[in-house]
Amino acid sequence: MPTPRHLTLILLLCVLGALPISAQANDATWQALKEGGLVILMRHSLAPWHW
User: Where is the signal peptide (predicted)?
Assistant: First the structure.
């Protein structure tokens, strides 16, 4: 069962993903946030007992 932090992170990623990207700088920032968020999410999914 996902923790509240899981749900918050998923919601944040969905909101960020829904925002239109206009500039390349924003695109690069979003790419970094997305990759970082997915790494965190995968780590938490694979090792939920660390919470």
Answer: 1-25
**Closest by Cα among 41, 31, 35 to 7:** 41
Q: Which residue has the tokens 């069962």?
A: 1
Q: Cα–Cα distance between 43 and 48 in angstroms, integer? A: 8
Specify whether the CB–CB gap between 8 and 46 falls below 8 A.
no
Query: Each residue of 7-34: pLDDT tens digit?
Result: 888 777 766 666 655 555 567 777 887 8
**Could you please report the per-residue DSSP string of 3-37?**
-HHHHHHHHHHHHHHHSPP-SHHHHHHHHHHHHHH
